[in-house]
Amino acid sequence: MSFIRRTYRQWHRQEDLIHFQVVCKETDLDIGIRRERYSPELVQWVEKLVRDVRGPLEEYVRRDPAFLKAHTPYQPLPGAPAIAVEMADAGRRAGVGPMAAVAGAVAGQVGKALCRRSRDVIVENGGDIFLRSACLRRIGIFAGQSAFTGRLALEIRPEDTPLGICTSSGTVGHSLSYGCADAVVVLSASPALADAAATAAGNLVQSPDDVQKAAGLAAAIPGIAGVVVICGDKLAAWGRVKLVPAG
């Protein structure tokens, strides 16, 4: 598996927004907000917000290390923090472990908090995106060495946001996948669920012939709005997905 050093971020960045990065341990966020809402004080606020989002989860996995290692649906202990419960629920619905939803869950919590300060918000966390927009947006699809990279984008209408747009890949990045999809992109109102479903669908792809089967798995999960599966020269799509030329 190759690791492309976050050059994929060019595919979701928006020219009318100002983008900045916030890094806290494993969490590496690319955040876009309206230019007039940006300030150094806002960046400091987001840095604290990320620590506050991560803190309860870090404390919980120290108490329940099996939560961290589970690759199948897992029931959190009584008193688990809200983010752990959200991740476990997303994992259960998609048939995977709770950590398959962690990047989407963090992006979602940070994004929802930022919505109180900016009408347009995009938070990307390792390929998993929370988006709220007041205008039409195009989010490019990065699919590694596939010929589809740089050619296709998702067109997202403002009335369909807030929205989670999460990507799993078996050929790009460091996240665990049992498949070899170049990209599985899942759309859901819940970024945590989109993240978990993308992992589940990606696990099914062992060859380009599996793209339709993987799309069908994601489509069968309640709460999923759309999915795009790419492996090599094959693509399958389902749901509220509008694919347009990139650029």
TrEMBL record:
<dbReference type="InterPro" id="IPR007183">
    <property type="entry name" value="UPF0280"/>
</dbReference>
<dbReference type="InterPro" id="IPR003374">
    <property type="entry name" value="ApbE-like_sf"/>
</dbReference>
<protein>
    <submittedName>
        <fullName>Thiamine biosynthesis protein ApbE</fullName>
    </submittedName>
</protein>
